Structure formats: structure tokens, C-alpha cells
Amino acid sequence: MTQPDLSTPDERPAVELSRTQVPLTALRARAFRIPTDFPEADGTFSWDATTLVTVEADGGGQTGLGYTYSDASIVKLIHGALSECVMQRDVWDIGALWLRMQQQVRNLGRSGLAATAISAIDCALWDLKAKLLGVPLVRLLGARRAAVPIYGSGGFTTYDDTQLRTQLGGWVHNDGCRWVKLKVGTHPDQDPARVAAARAAIGNAGLFVDANGALSVKSALHYAQRFADQQVEWFEEPVSSDDLPGLAALRQRVPHGMEIAAGEYGYTLDDFRLLLEARAVDVLQADASRCGGITGFLQVADLCEAFHIPLSAHCAPALHLHVASAVPRLRHQEWFHDHVRIEAMLFDGAPQPAHGAISADLSRPGCGLELRQRDAQPYLIQ
């Protein structure tokens, strides 16, 4: 007579566990507000704190972790409508759960806050699935590269030249970054001098600028020609990413060797499709904390493959590391100052750069991250 299996889910072999349904038994969200280390601004916005929203998903004796950089208001959405449509569903079926969440917010609007909430949940589900199988997430997704190149990103318009040179130069000379990026557009007339200061600090490394949509097409073209004097090779959102004709026109007219990039504000797959169909970018950006999590990021990567356009992962480097290691056509990962600082402060397992790249820790299951509860507690707001 066969004896019943009395082992707990996390004691069963992963292969055996994968043959059974695993219901999602709990979904918890919290919001943390972390002050910046110095006032920050770009061409269209200024801030002195960043809000991190974490999601924990329980199932099969394991807990998956996901997060997004959004607003604390999404905690209520996660605990309410989104939780209602996925609770007790099989956590193996991430595609079905993702679709249910998309349908759940149809009348709310799938973009913006709803998209960030879904993104955090989706990332937690992928982390949970990999932990149930006892493998790093990149093993589940299928690695294409052992290391993900990073570019240092900051250079806020609130920085003076000394701060600018120290930060950008440090990424190149200490962390081995092949490229760095600074913000422009708050005071455009000052930007050529700031770009020249950046170039002096980084030597021959690649130099990027990001206007966050602050400029008109004509002014963007004017400054692109000025920036070309310092071998700027990437102009991110010179105009609003909603201005597809403007981006496309600039892509055709900026100096040779300068690429146009946009996509960080893409929330749905159609947002990215429209950018690509308009031939508006040389490099498409996508952010897994906004575009539907790991599931959404994989879909965007497939679009880039179809359109033969490189992909760059926007911000949240610890969140992207495993999926960025797996997708085709990845150019690099943004090593954004705010998020690098927060992830190092609050997460065990946050990646550290080596020779201008980050690598997944294959000794840790899932995404390899664990929130340090005691360190995070002082910043809890919801």
C-alpha cells in the first residue's frame, strides 16, 4: 500500500512539486519612502525622495519578492482588485495571472499606476516560481549572457560641476563603466558647459545625455549639434516620448554617431510597438517595474528582436538583472544612482559592479534578493 506524502511543500523535490498545482495564498504590499542623498532634478521634474513599493507573494511554502518605484496609492490597488483576481490561482500559470490582472484594470486604465502595481506582482510571481523550482530566475528564463553591461546614470541638474565630475568619473574609473549619462534640459543654455565638464572627467568613455522630454524639436536639434562636439553618442528623450513624429525627425537629423533613445514611460506593449513602427528610436528602453514586470519585459524584448532594434533596461538594476541576462538584443542596463543606492541599502543580494558589468548570483534562488526588514522599517509609510 502506498504511503501518503506527508512532507511539507518546501521539503518536496522541486520536480515533484512542479507536477502539482500551487495556489497563491497571500499577496502583501508595502510602501517605503526613502529621501535622496542630495536634491535631484532633470529637465522636467525635481524630487527629494523616492517611493519603493514591495510585493510578497506566498505559495507552496515559499515567498516571492517583487517591487516597483511608484506611488504608495498602489498598495490599496494590490490588496484590493488585483489580489481578488489572482488569489488561490495556480502560481505556475504566470501568463494567465498576468492576463487576469490586465483585464481587471481595463476600466481603470492599464497604464500608469495600475501598470506599476501589476509589474511588482508579476516580478514577485516569477521570483516565487523560481524559488519553488530551487533555481535562480535566470536559469528558468534561459541565460544568454553571464554578465550585463551597465552605464552609470545620474548627473542631475542640481549638481555643480564638482559633483558631476566626481560621480561620473567614479563610475568610469572605479566601477569600470563604459558609458555614463547626465541629465540636461533644466537650463539648456548651461548644458554644453556641463557636458564638457563631464567629458573631461570620463576621458574616452561613452557619454549619454537625457532631457526627459524637456526640449522642442528645433532646440533639441540645436543642442544635439552642440553636444556632438563632446562626442555624445546617446540623446535620450530629447522631446516628449509622446511626440513620435518629433523623435523620428530627430533620429534622421541628429549628427552621425548619436542615437535617439526612449521607452522608459512605456506601460503596455502597444506603447513600445508604436515607438518602433514610427521608427522613432535607435535604442528602445523598457522598465520591468512599469511595463508589466518580467512578463512584459520579455514581450518588449520579442518586439525588439522582430524590429532589429537594441534594448536597454531602464533603472531598477537589481530587479532587471536576471531577465536582462536572458533577453536578446540587450545593449545595457541603467545603473541609476537613486535605485542603486536604495537597493544596496535595503536588499541582501543587490548586485555590485565589476569591470563595468553586473552578474546574477547563481547560488541564490529566484531573483536573489531579500528585503532587510529592519533596515526598511524606518522608511515605511504604508
Structure description:
The chain has 382 residues and is α/β, with parallel strands linked by helices. It has two domains: 9-135, Enolase-like, domain 1 (2-Layer Sandwich); 139-370, TIM Barrel, CATH 3.20.20. The chain contains 14 helices and 14 strands. It has helices at 14-17, 74-86, 94-104, 113-133, 137-141, 161-173, 191-202, 217-227, 244-253, 269-277, 293-307, 317-324, 337-346, 373-376; strands at 26-41, 46-59, 62-69, 148-154, 179-183, 206-210, 232-236, 259-262, 283-286, 311-313, 330-336, 347-348, 357-358, 370-371. Helix 4 crosses helix 11. Residues 1-10 have low confidence and may be disordered.
Alpha carbon gyration radius: 21 Å
Which regions are unreliable across 5 or more consecutive residues at pLDDT < 50? 1-10
Number of domains: 2
Strand content: 15-25%
Mean pLDDT: 95
* CATH H level, superfamily name of the largest domain: Enolase-like C-terminal domain
Helix-strand pattern: HEEEHHHHEHEHEHEHEHEHEHEHEEEH
Structural class, by secondary structure, is: alpha/beta
Specify the helix fraction band: 25-40%
Q: What is the fold named in CATH at topology level of the largest domain? A: TIM Barrel
Q: Oligomer, anyone?
A: single chain
- In CATH terms, what is the architecture of the largest domain? Alpha-Beta Barrel
Treating each run of at least 4 consecutive H or I residues as one helix, how many helices?
Answer: 14
For the largest beta sheet, what order do the strands appear in spatially? Answer: 4-5-6-7-8-9-10-11
SS elements, strand count: 14
The largest pleated sheet is described as: 8 strands, parallel, barrel
Distance between the termini: 52 Å
